[in-house]
Every structure is written in structure tokens, then in C-alpha cells.
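Q: I have 105 residues here and want to know how they pack in 3D. Can you give me a structure?
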Amino acid sequence: MKATFALLIAMLTGFSVNAEAGTWNPGVNHRQHNQQHRIWQGVGSGELTGREFRRLQVEQRAIRHRERVYKSDGQLTGRERITLHRGLNRAGHDIYRQKHDGQTR
């Protein structure tokens, strides 16, 4: 009875009962927030030039856009989540490389 009631509540409130699907992705969101913080820290410390900052922001914007496109159908599949994480991995490496390349403001 409790399981049926929980399923009914989930369906009425719009939550997905499938663990693989849905649009909730705290791992991706946390990484995006962390990367934005790293970029702004680099700007504040002078480790990033204006050009590097703009390039990294464009890369972050592209990841956010891709995430919105993936979520537009109401489902974020495992494959889409992997693609987002790969983009975030690449962006994280780019942030590190730009912060440590010796160029300063």
C-alpha cells in the first residue's frame, strides 16, 4: 500500500521513478559551480588574462547550453551525462592550463 501511494505521489508531482532518467544532475551542477569559482579566482589573482577569461567563459557557456538541450526533452540519459562530464573534464584541464601558463594580467 505504501509503495503504491509513493508511486502515485511521484507521478502526480512529476518526479521520475526511473533512476537512470530525469533531469536532476547534482554532480554536473556542482562541477560547473566549482569551475566558475576557479575561473573567477584566477581573474582575481591575475593568473588569467582577459582573453583567457573570455575563452573559458565561452567554453562554460557551451557546456550549459548542451545541458539545456539534453534536458529539453525531460530526460537526461546516462550517455548525455557522460558527454557533459567529458566536456567538464576538458574544461577543467583548460582552466588549469590557463591558470598555470605563466601569463598574467
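Q: Anything worth noting?
A: Confidence is low (pLDDT under 50) at residues 15-20. The chain is about 70% helix and 0% strand.
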